[in-house]
Amino acid sequence: MGSNDDGAHLGRDFGAVNVDIQEYDPHTTNKNLTTLPNYVNSDIRHTPFKDKAFDVAVIGEVLEHCKRQAALDILNEARRIAKYVVVTIPFDSGHSGNRLILLA
Length: 104
Fold this sequence. Notes:
Elements: H1 4-14, E1 18-20, E2 24-25, E3 31-32, E4 39-41, E5 54-60, H2 68-81, E6 82-90, E7 98-103
């Protein structure tokens, strides 16, 4: 959920579905996201997928950009469409890397 280049690798390497409301990635000189493998243009708060359609939903580097209610809506939608939810957010306390959260 939230495609960008990370979603491209997951789609290409693992057959993952890439969901993003934008058709272009503003962070990579407006890369056309519609060319990503398995791209679905959708608001990630309300996706077109059936309940538990996926084993895992990955929300990568998205929630830190959202207001509280939008973040809760995204998490609830991810839990609706997947058995497990993996969330990454930037970890900015002097260490490089990200914080990983797994919700079951």
